[in-house]
Amino acid sequence: MDKDKDFIGSSNMGNAGNQTNNNNQADLPKEYGDTKIVALVRDPMWIHVYWEVNRKKKEDLKNMLGDFYDQANFILRVHDVTGIDFTGENSASYFDITVDKSAVNWYINTGNPDREFVVDLGMLTPTGQFILIARSNRIKTPRAGVSDVIDEKWMMVEEHYSEILRMSGTGSVGKASADIMGEITKRLFSDMNLSSGTLSSASSSSVTRKTDKEEDSFWFKVGTELIVYGETVPDAEVTINGNIIKLRPDGSFTLRFELPDGGHNFDIKAVSSNKKHKRQAVIDVNKGTK
Predict the structure, then answer these.
(1) Is the dihedral of CA 63, 67, 73, 78 positive or negative?
(2) Which residue range forms the structural domain that includes residue 198?
(3) 290 residues of the chain, pLDDT tens digit each
(4) Number of domains present in the structure of the chain
(5) Which of 15, 70, 86, 262 is the most interior residue, by most CB within 10 Å?
(6) 283 and 155: one domain?
(7) What is the sign of the dihedral through the CA atoms of 145, 149, 155 and 161?
């Protein structure tokens, strides 16, 4: 297994017992008398662990190892347990990090996003025996790239759908969210003359490729979606090409719609409630299908 990995160490944080600060307020204790290790995710490549070994456990280790205690190293053994019912011996791979006996926390570069890890704190004797002291919780690092799951994050409430649909001139009574979304994408934005902010004749943003024989049932359809999102103060007025967009209570907004071939211009403006402050962003998009 790999023995060397990038890491950032930390020295001992102090002795046990409560401390008092300059304001005569009691600080949290530096130790709690436990023996444990806790793992936390920092980002796709790095995790952070902190631990405590109580006095009794240290005495037990000294008695067990005798003269070898001073020669033995404290080890963080980082197990990759992705998709495994981990028993302690069946990790997909692991690597060791030697840490100072006075350290109480460590940053570890796992080198692998979107993986699951468990970290063992133990001692490695001169003969190569690994003595487990404590095992951490199981954690998973996030993926390094942009997530391909966007519906939950950018999903708009049905009230917002209905209001935009009403602006587009289509009814929303009795329609489910999926139907409303379809109406929005096909009418409000696909039908919109994006340079002027007005509605034009109906058009389709998808491209259909058929065979030479029209009677052939085989066909192929490709479409493109675009997400426009942002945020401002909750009481501001936001418009896209002159159309007012209803904001969420926190001032954020999201619009998702089909994108037809060609060039498109999005003129997005935010105006404060007292009309004294204005901000503007212009987005140019050019989409083509070959």
Answers:
(1) negative
(2) 151-287
(3) 554 455 555 444 333 344 445 555 556 566 677 899 999 999 899 999 999 999 899 899 888 888 888 888 889 999 999 999 999 999 999 999 999 888 999 999 998 899 999 999 999 888 888 999 999 999 999 987 655 554 444 455 555 555 555 555 544 444 444 554 555 445 444 444 333 333 333 333 445 555 555 556 777 777 777 788 888 898 999 998 888 888 888 888 887 767 778 888 888 999 999 998 999 998 888 888 87
(4) 2
(5) 86
(6) yes
(7) positive
CA distance 55 to 270: 61
Q: What angle do CA 17, 19, 25 make, to 5 degrees?
A: 135
Other C-beta atoms lying within 10 Å of the C-beta of residue 45: 15
Q: Is residue 2 part of a domain?
A: no
Same domain, 157 and 136: no
CB 104 within 8 A of CB 69: no
Q: What are phi and psi of 47, to 5 degrees?
A: -125, 160
Domain membership flag for residue 39: yes
Q: Please name the residues in contact with 230: beta carbons below 8 A apart, sequence gap of 6 or more.
A: 238, 252, 253, 268, 281
Instruction: Tell me whether residue 54 is exposed, middle or buried, using C-beta atoms within 10 angstroms of its C-beta: 0 to 12, 13 to 18, 19 or more.
Output: middle
Residue ending a domain, among 140, 165, 198, is: 140
Between CA 119 and CA 138 the distance in angstroms is 8
Q: Which residue, 140, 165, 187, sits at the end of a domain?
A: 140
- Give domain status of residue 20, yes or no: yes
261: tokens are 């071939």
Same domain, 13 and 132: yes
0.70 surpassed by pTM: no
> Which residue is listed with tokens 């993986």?
115
